[in-house]
Amino acid sequence: MGPAAPRPRPAGTGGRRPVGDGRTADGRALNAQLHPARHPGFRPSPPALRGRGGSLCQPGGEIVTRWESKWDRVELWLFDLHHYLWAGEPGSVVAGWLGLIGLAFVITGVILWWRTRKTFEFRLWPARMSRPAIVRHHRDLGIVVAPLLFLSMVTGVMLTLRPVANMLLTPWSGGENFRAAMAPPKVEGGALSPDLDWAAMLGEAHRRFPEAEFRSLGLPKNPGDLISLRMKQPEEWLPNGRTLLWFDPADGRLIEARDALAMPAATQMFNAVYPLHAAKVGGLAYRLVMTLSGLGLCLLGTLSVWTFWFRRPKPKARPAARVTAPKLREPA
After folding, report:
1. Does pTM top 0.90 for this prediction?
2. b/e sequence 184-193, b meaning 16+ C-beta within 10 Å
3. Does residue 332 lie in a domain region?
4. Is the pLDDT at 260 greater than 90, yes or no?
5. Helix or strand or coil: residue 203?
6. Are residues 201 and 270 in the same domain?
7. Where are the strands (E) in 28-172, listed by range?
8. Host domain of residue 290
């Protein structure tokens, strides 16, 4: 969509306009809360922390909490462990390859189970803690959770290894790069102005997408970057939505707006990967199913390691070969 200049405040509203979920906020108060020079919660982080700090605010602009490092919030460092193994981008690549190995285990396990499918018996726990009983339990419980493990690992690999996502989604993209729909516009923004009308900018976003909720506001990190705003429409699965708007930091002018529901099919499929992986869709039932899948994976892995180390069959001792002395012929 083309650029649009900030609209004047509507008459008869006392200088107020709807923000977020329809509640009103005074423009001057909102500016005071959101401007980076007036509230530490929205100041760009130091270079060492850039991309790790952040803030949460109410639709009216009131800061709820802020943090300067991922270690300040438990859910952030847990996510960093799960996604990056506390090792940054290299850790993400390692996690992706581990997911591919997990997929290989799932596929080969299904193939091995198929030969013994007539002996299937569902058990939450092995009948005995012997090696044969544990192996049978592993085979039968594994086939039950295999579809969910396959879904979890495929979506996880797609989120960590870009070539895998490209390979799976390219047939649905018509040969085009499906990520282009999510990339910022190739427009260079000006320097961040100290007098931006944040209420007008959010109001313009609300006018474009009246049913959407504000999710995140990103300030420019480098010279020439734009102000980014993410919104979530009711039909979107992503918790933070993928409805995107970009503003010029110099004057608050809307540069471009993109409707997540109008993005190409491959892009919308990619936007569904994370909600499926993290059980952010499907309500309580799907969360319980994915929780049981995770617990099943832990049980299968734990019993497999325990069996490998402590229930391995002892090699049978070979009987010593009998050596027969040759008979000596008596001299005639």
Report:
1. no
2. eeeeebeebe
3. no
4. yes
5. helix
6. yes
7. 54-57, 63-67
8. 75-160+279-310
